[in-house]
Design goal:
By secondary structure, this protein is an all-alpha fold. It has one domain: Heme Oxygenase, Chain A. It is built from 11 helices and no strands. Helix 3 packs antiparallel against helix 8 and helix 7 packs antiparallel against helix 11. The mean pLDDT is about 90.
């Protein structure tokens, strides 16, 4: 019988964002700059909302251990001037997208649907399923960040100070993801529903990439 972590990891492997054409082209260095720039605009809205997903689950859980985990994660996301949204805006600037253009951009339907889904699950799903929804993203981030850094360096000529957002997540989300597995195991009442929650969250992440990939002008 596979462990709960193995079940979830299998779902993430099957629905990995790295297998999406958007990332496949990014890793090869063939992704058009228009698509990367649209990704910068769209992802900002998710990054800005992510602390509120953490806060919503933190408010609802009775477990001091899980609350501490979420608090640590929230601190990493929002503390200080060089918080994660600020680092993302620096990356967008390096792509040629001014910060004001990013912050004033409008979420496309796929981005809006993803954010709405994460909000709903964070506020309303059983705690284990809500945590699995977050893990569907954060559990993929270390591998994503490594590949993003590699491609930005080798194919797009970026310097380390231009992709600090990914460098920070390469380290931070290893710890977050490991702790989240323990929290999911603590809160889980049904392993089948936990796996299904992770899978549904992955579907929204993949649809988000569909929206970035289909940016007007390079369809």
């Amino acid at each position: 019988m596979p462990t709960l972590e193995a079940r979830i990891r299998t779902v993430l492997d099957q629905k990995s964002m790295l297998n999406h054409p958007f990332y496949q082209e990014w890793m090869r260095g063939s992704l058009e700059m228009d698509r990367l720039q649209e990704y910068a605009r769209q992802y900002y809205h998710f990054e800005l909302a992510f602390p509120r997903f953490l806060s919503a689950i933190h408010t609802r859980t009775e477990s001091p251990t899980i609350r501490q985990l979420l608090l640590d994660n929230l601190w990493d996301e929002e503390h200080g001037e060089r918080n994660h949204p600020a680092l993302w805006l620096e990356f967008a600037e390096a792509l040629g997208v001014p910060a004001a253009e990013v912050t004033n951009s409008t979420p496309n339907p796929e981005t809006e649907a993803m954010i709405d889904y994460y909000y709903d699950r964070s506020r309303n799903a059983p705690i284990g399923e809500a945590l699995a929804t977050l893990f569907a993203y954060e559990g993929q981030v270390p591998d994503l960040a490594w590949q993003q850094i590699k491609a930005l360096t080798e194919h797009y000529g970026f310097k380390p100070n231009q992709f600090e957002f990914f460098s920070v997540h390469l380290v931070a989300d290893v710890a977050h993801a490991g702790a989240e597995i323990g929290a999911i195991e603590e809160a889980s009442e049904d392993e089948e529903t936990i796996g299904a929650a992770a899978g549904r969250a992955c579907d929204y992440l993949l649809a988000f990439l569909d929206g970035c990939y289909a940016v007007a002008g390079v369809r």
